């Protein structure tokens, strides 16, 4: 059983507010961004449904090069400062691999997962029937088991965005921040990666992204020490929570 059993009667429909200091786009621009986002959402659902049908519950169904590559990123995300007993929302949870990784290491947390792809959520629920898994996108409003979590994590959810990917990444992080009592950790392919311009996937600019992040929260850190193709952001909504992280810049 989970540390804090999930009650569906306690779920809340959450549509996060924009970050403080941000200027919302005009209605015409917002409508265009939403159309592009929903097109990308449909592409993502179709793409990963096909991969899951082909590979089953495997790192390959999520397009990781290897299980080791996937789990190395899990380790970096958790090093934001997650401790036993903390509550965690896993955005883009796939079939629950992060939860399985934490359980193998004896890290017991109050976990909830969500994913855009219905088939991924079905597999996660079958794999961990005692845990809450939600299908949907934070930007559309979703039924979550609680209003806030200690930590919100997302691994590998930006690579397949094709239209306005930088804006989408900022919008998603901004949607995670009001849900996080301590902080948000996300990763992305990096614009500084070797031969990045030959790749088809979205690569974010780490310098521009960390500069934006530091305008949103009391403290934000950038990690580029674990993979030449990747970076991770730690955004602390509570600056004191940064003291719990084992990693130091």
UniProtKB/TrEMBL annotation:
Residues 88-172 form the Methyltransferase domain. Residues 1-40 are annotated as: Disordered. The keyword Metal-binding does not apply. This is Methyltransferase domain-containing protein. Keywords: Methyltransferase, Transferase. PANTHER family: TRANS-ACONITATE 2-METHYLTRANSFERASE-RELATED. The keyword Cytoplasm does not apply. CDD domains: AdoMet_MTases (cd02440). GO terms for biological process: methylation. It comes from Rhodospira trueperi. It comes from the Bacteria. InterPro entries: Methyltransf_25 (IPR041698), SAM-dependent_MTases_sf (IPR029063). Residues 27-40 have a biased composition (Basic and acidic residues). SUPFAM superfamilies: S-adenosyl-L-methionine-dependent methyltransferases. Pfam families: Methyltransf_25. One of its GO terms (molecular function) is methyltransferase activity.
């Amino acid at each position: 059983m989970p540390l804090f059993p999930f009650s569906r009667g306690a779920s809340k429909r959450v549509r996060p507010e924009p970050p403080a200091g941000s200027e919302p786009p005009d209605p015409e621009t917002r409508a265009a961004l939403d159309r592009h986002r929903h097109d990308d959402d449909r592409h993502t659902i179709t793409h990963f449904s096909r991969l899951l049908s082909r590979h089953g519950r495997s790192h390959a169904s999520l397009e990781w090069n290897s299980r080791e590559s996937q789990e190395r990123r899990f380790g970096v995300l958790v090093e934001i400062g997650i401790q036993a007993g903390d509550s965690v929302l896993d955005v883009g949870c796939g079939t629950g691999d992060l939860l399985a990784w934490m359980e193998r290491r004896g890290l017991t947390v109050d976990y909830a997962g969500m994913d855009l792809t219905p088939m991924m959520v079905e597999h996660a629920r079958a794999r961990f029937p005692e845990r809450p898994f939600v299908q949907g996108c934070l930007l559309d409003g979703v039924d979550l088991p609680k209003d806030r979590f200690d930590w919100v994590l997302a691994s590998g959810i930006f690579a397949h965005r094709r239209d306005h990917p930088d804006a989408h990444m900022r919008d998603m992080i901004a949607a995670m921040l009001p849900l996080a009592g301590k902080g948000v950790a996300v990763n992305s392919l990096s614009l500084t990666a070797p031969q990045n311009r030959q790749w088809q996937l979205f690569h974010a600019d780490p310098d521009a992204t960390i500069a934006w992040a530091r305008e949103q929260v009391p403290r934000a850190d950038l990690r580029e020490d674990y993979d030449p193709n990747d970076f991770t952001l730690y955004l602390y909504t509570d600056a004191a929570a940064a003291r719990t992280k084992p990693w130091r810049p």
